[in-house]
Amino acid sequence: MSRVINPNVPGKDRTRLKKGIALALRELSRTTETNARTLDLVSFIVLALEGIENTIEVTTTAWEKRDYWIKADRFRREWEWAGRLGKELRPLVLSKNWDAIAAFSPKIFHYVGDVKISERHRMGQPWLGAWKELTKG
């Protein structure tokens, strides 16, 4: 019997979410007015940052079971920015404080600015409906 491989691993999720954040920031930089699309973009960024934070413990738990404590701690420190920025950005988005959101964007760009996304990416528009998702619970 062959080994079963799970294609849905946290590392792929982190990469996909980080690319989605970079794409959303690019779209935000092209936007000059605040509307429902802009609200979806910033809401998606919050949800993606929180999603990245959720993948961290899954990854480090597996390493800690194998007694890779230092590797797990280093990994947590490397990715702590996602949870911190998500917690800081959420209240700004919920209050629709556009000036503060605009000032906050460079902090996020610092971490995702190096992400390469081709013009022919297949991600579509992952931010569609993000505002509704953010405010539902």
Strand composition percent: under 5%
Quote the average pLDDT.
90
* Mass-distribution shape: globular
N→C terminal distance: 43 Å
User: Which ranges are low-confidence, i.e. pLDDT below 50, for 5 or more consecutive residues?
Assistant: none
Number of helices: 5
Q: Which structural class do you get from the secondary structure elements? A: mainly alpha
Instruction: Spell the H/E element sequence.
Output: HHHHH
> How many individual β-strands?
0
Rg value: 16 Å
How does the major sheet shape up?
none
Give the helix proportion (percent range): over 70%
Number of structurally distinct domains: 1
Looking at this protein, list some descriptive labels.
5 helices, mainly alpha, 137 residues
Overview of this protein structure:
- It is globular and about 55 Å long.
- The protein has helices at 10-30, 36-65, 69-94, 98-112, 130-136.
- With 137 residues, it is mainly alpha-helical.
- Helix content is 72%, strand content 0%.
- It is built from five helices and no strands.
- It has one domain (10-136).
